[in-house]
Amino acid sequence: MSVDQPVTVEVGLGDRAYDILIGSGLLSRAGEEISRRLPGTRAAVVTDENVAAAHLDTLKAGLEKGGIQPTVITMPPGEKTKSFAHLEEVVDGILAARLERGDVVVALGGGVIGDLTGFAAGIVRRGMNFVQVPTSLLAQVDSSVGGKTGINSPRGKNLVGVFLQPRLVLADTGVLDTLPIREFRAGYAELAKYGLIDRPELFAWLEVNWQKVFAGGPERAQAIAEACRAKADVVARDEFETGDRALLNLGHTFGHALEAATQYDGARLVHGEGVAIGMALAHRFSSRLNLASPDDAARVETHLRAVGLPWRMSDIPGELPDAEALLSFITQDKKVSRGALTFILTRGIGQAFIAKDVPASEVLSFLRENHPASRKAG
Amino acid sequence: MSVDQPVTVEVGLGDRAYDILIGSGLLSRAGEEISRRLPGTRAAVVTDENVAAAHLDTLKAGLEKGGIQPTVITMPPGEKTKSFAHLEEVVDGILAARLERGDVVVALGGGVIGDLTGFAAGIVRRGMNFVQVPTSLLAQVDSSVGGKTGINSPRGKNLVGVFLQPRLVLADTGVLDTLPIREFRAGYAELAKYGLIDRPELFAWLEVNWQKVFAGGPERAQAIAEACRAKADVVARDEFETGDRALLNLGHTFGHALEAATQYDGARLVHGEGVAIGMALAHRFSSRLNLASPDDAARVETHLRAVGLPWRMSDIPGELPDAEALLSFITQDKKVSRGALTFILTRGIGQAFIAKDVPASEVLSFLRENHPASRKAG
Ligand SMILES: NC(=O)c1ccc[n+]([C@@H]2O[C@H](COP(=O)([O-])OP(=O)(O)OC[C@H]3O[C@@H](n4cnc5c(N)ncnc54)[C@H](O)[C@@H]3O)[C@@H](O)[C@H]2O)c1
Ligand SMILES: NC(=O)c1ccc[n+]([C@@H]2O[C@H](COP(=O)([O-])OP(=O)(O)OC[C@H]3O[C@@H](n4cnc5c(N)ncnc54)[C@H](O)[C@@H]3O)[C@@H](O)[C@H]2O)c1
Ligand SMILES: [Zn+2]
Ligand SMILES: [Zn+2]
């Protein structure tokens, strides 16, 4: 395994600032990097069965080189793990290891493990040290950065959690080689999102270089670093999502509705795929509202299709509920004040903005026009 | 019910500063006080069955006067309610009421309800607004101020939780009239604690005026306000307990060991009673270590006895485990570095300090000398 010099992105949050290291071979350096920042710490590692099979031994060896003998807590893989029952298990595992407030909890896994583990680290002894070792592309470019942690409730996704910034993020780009391609693509949608929000040059670069990002050359680390920079910028401006941070939800309003409409059945649609379709729809909708040029929407669709991501509702296998039902999933998710919805819309690639007054009626007509049923019929 | 002008104590935490209002009749003013600070808010009230029976209607009427129609979530009374299962119930109740991040969760009850509710408010949507309406003396002088929230784990008390400062504390001194006398006394122990830590004039004042505090005259509100000031001072200096805040644990090392030794059986010992005995022991131990005069220890014991609180181990009904076992409860509770323990000791009344190097062997001899078994034998 090659250990190149990693790229460092700093998340500027004052006395809670931290580094994101991005590069291959970082699992082997975990002990060194952690104990340099938290000398004398003890650790628990939380992971899932898939990731444990592929990467736990490497991480353990890396920790041991830094003098850290971790306790390991292994969860089942999958979104259902983000539950109160599993939270209680992780909390109990950390307490059973007799870790103190100054010790560290390490999340080794995708966004599910990162969100669950960060929440546990945030509540054991009212807050321990937390380190993210994201192993999915989605986690490396999105969920491991920014301090949102949490679990799901039967009443909705991510409704329960805390803000807890990690002390360090180690994004080992080599571990992505074992990630199923469909998961890689799903993470890629979130990566492309930063280009669409406010980095048009990133999007243009991805249009040219995406194959190298998938193949794993230095372009992969470069793209991930750029995504982390983009997210770190937003987070530093608006840590607790009282304003700008909402831009990160580009594509997520439509995306969440589609996830809900498919009962969060990963066989039909995983989160990043929902976001891909959602981003294409957000661009198409913005063009329909005469906010952006239809050429930009077409460019987004073309790129998503090129990388093998779904980009329209008809790409989802199986039947979808009708437009009215989709709208009700959207309004369930958010405050509706007098028939107006808050949406992330765009004036073109790299020019997303928060629109607070989108008429629900416009959304409904748009959903009708773009619904697979009406398309087939029309 | 008389509505006097309440006393206001400000907790100086910068942009999270908040007021503690202390006075009688405050439940009836809850709606006005809350909606002045959080205009247009919706609310959930969390309470326990005992407190609901005595005070919920008054609070509801008070909220409605301020235009707030709350959802009510009622828990069983008692320490066992501070569990993951009840946390999940409260979280679900808040979500079922479809409250948003800017809405408010109100805790109406003693420390159990305050700790559980604050934790739930801190994690629903990663943090909602929180208001404390403490109804036990302990909650009014201690647990409602300072932002520590949490639940118990089978592995220990208060091991899981968050820091969440309330937006407002309404300490209605009138509601204490329905509090069982034993609970009142237990809360009084924590009140006297502030005098013993660093307010010798408060302790001297209590020696003279304690009967009026029990009877419920203006002295009651005065004493509670002084206690809140004392706690607010410490919290403003050290919100996350990295230093000085540990002084608030005066009496708690011995106290917790006694609570554990009696299996948290409230019929034998409630928390404040453990603290009373613990404070007397901390003074006696300090005098044995030649740090303080035995006269001060005697003064503490005399006052605790006068108000009807237990002050020595032999005041606990039933058998206690032996000194070795008590020491093991103490060392279980804290980091022991090379046989040395951290303890809150004192140089005299109002002169408590953090001692980091107390030899476990000294603690053991002291526990042996003061153990009921050896006392009866000797
Ligand atoms: N906290 C945030 O800011 C934030 C942001 C976006 C998404 N999320 C959350 O992230 C979650 C989705 O994350 P995800 O897509 O990483 O899901 P995930 O954690 O379920 O990982 C996807 C799958 O890939 C497997 N896997 C992960 N890394 C692997 C590797 N290197 N090799 C082989 N298999 C591997 C996992 O076991 C799982 O089966 C959602 O719960 C979402 O809500 C959180
Ligand atoms: N968060 C903190 O900083 C902090 C500090 C100290 C203690 N605590 C916690 O506080 C808890 C103890 O608090 P507590 O002593 O208030 O216990 P509690 O909440 O159990 O109340 C004691 C009893 O009095 C009843 N009660 C409360 N108010 C009443 C009223 N006005 N009229 C009639 N009955 C009433 C309750 O139903 C209960 O049965 C413990 O769990 C302890 O860990 C927390
Ligand atoms: Zn996403
Ligand atoms: Zn106490």
For the structure shown, list the relevant keywords.
Rossmann fold, Dehydroquinate synthase-like, alpha domain, 14 helices, binds zinc ion, DHQS_C (chains A, B), 378 residues, amino-acid biosynthesis (chains A, B), homodimer, 11 strands, binds nicotinamide-adenine-dinucleotide, 2 domains, two-stranded antiparallel ribbon, aromatic amino acid biosynthesis (chains A, B), nucleotide-binding (chains A, B), 7-stranded mixed sheet, alpha/beta
Compute the number of helices of chain A: 14
Enumerate the distinct ligands: nicotinamide-adenine-dinucleotide, zinc ion
Computed CA radius of gyration of chain A, to the nearest angstrom: 20 Å
Number of strands of chain A: 11
CATH class category name of the largest domain in chain A: Alpha Beta
Uncertain segments of chain A are none
Overall structural domain count of chain A: 2
How would you portray this structure in words?
The structure is a homodimer of 378-residue chains. Chain A is of the alpha/beta class and 378 residues long. Chain A has two domains: 7-179, Rossmann fold (3-Layer(aba) Sandwich); 237-377, Up-down Bundle (Dehydroquinate synthase-like, alpha domain). Chain A has 14 helices and eleven strands. The first copy, chain A, has helices at 30-37, 49-65, 84-96, 111-123, 137-143, 181-198, 200-215, 218-237, 252-261, 271-288, 294-307, 323-333, 360-370, 372-377, and strands at 7-11, 18-23, 43-48, 71-75, 104-109, 129-134, 151-153, 156-160, 168-172, 340-346, 352-359. In chain A, the strands form three sheets. A seven-stranded mixed beta sheet of chain A has the order 1-2-9-6-5-3-4, with helices on both faces. A two-stranded antiparallel ribbon of chain A has the order 7-8. Chain A has a two-stranded antiparallel ribbon with strand order 10-11. In chain A, helix 12 crosses helix 13. Chain A starts with 6 loop residues before the first strand and ends with a helix. At the A-B interface, helix 3, helix 4 and strand 8 of A face helix 3, helix 4 and strand 8 of B. One nicotinamide-adenine-dinucleotide (NAD) is lined by residues 48, 50-51, 54, 77-79, 82, 109-113, 115, 135-136, 138-139, 142-143, 146, 148, 157-158, 175-176, 178-179, 183, 186, 271 of chain A. Residues 48, 50-51, 54, 77-79, 82, 109-113, 115, 135-136, 138-139, 142-143, 146, 148, 157-158, 175-176, 178-179, 183, 186, 271 of chain A line the site of one nicotinamide-adenine-dinucleotide (NAD). Chains A, B: NAD(+) binds at residues 111-115, 135-136, 148, 157.
